[in-house]
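Ticket opened by: R.M.
Priority: normal
Category: complex prediction / small molecule

The reporter submitted a protein together with magnesium ion and asked that the result be attached to this ticket for the collaborator who will pick it up next week. Submitted input follows.
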Amino acid sequence: MFMNIYPKAYISSLSDVKADYFKEKGIKGLILDLDNTIIPWKAAILQPEMADLLKGYQASGLNLCVVSNAFNRRVVGLLEPLGIPGVAWARKPRRKSFLKAMDILGTTPAETAVVGDQLFTDIWGGNRLGLYTVLVIPISKKEFFGTRFVRLLEKFVLNRLAKKGVIEIPE
Ligand SMILES: [Mg+2]
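Result attached by the on-call engineer:
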């Protein structure tokens, strides 16, 4: 089976991307990864800047849903103050949790983007369902030892893709 881990876009931070970027592509819902995408790895709270950004997306008409491989209590506790639904224990890159998120968002695959920091969970999982996949540079460097090798591989792949012009980097 061909494993498509190429993101459609590559960004340094979610805060670089305005709601219009998504809306111009017909995207109505965002599936957001949690750790290293909207919060530093294993952080207990959402930073005010990120909370404001997400509220801004919502105000612009984008529906949001967090899909995380982390456990339920943590995901719900973090998102409850913002009223953002979350799918925990997602087991990305499996399709099931992405489908569940689209059900919550009320969007079709063509209307849905995935934003995450990992090629082998967020991007691959999103690509399997034909979603618009956006890779973000991880917020923090606090990683499991084991993921370091994966990061090196990602970096290698991305550098090649950027040179070839395969991936898009939003302004
Ligand atoms: Mg992550």
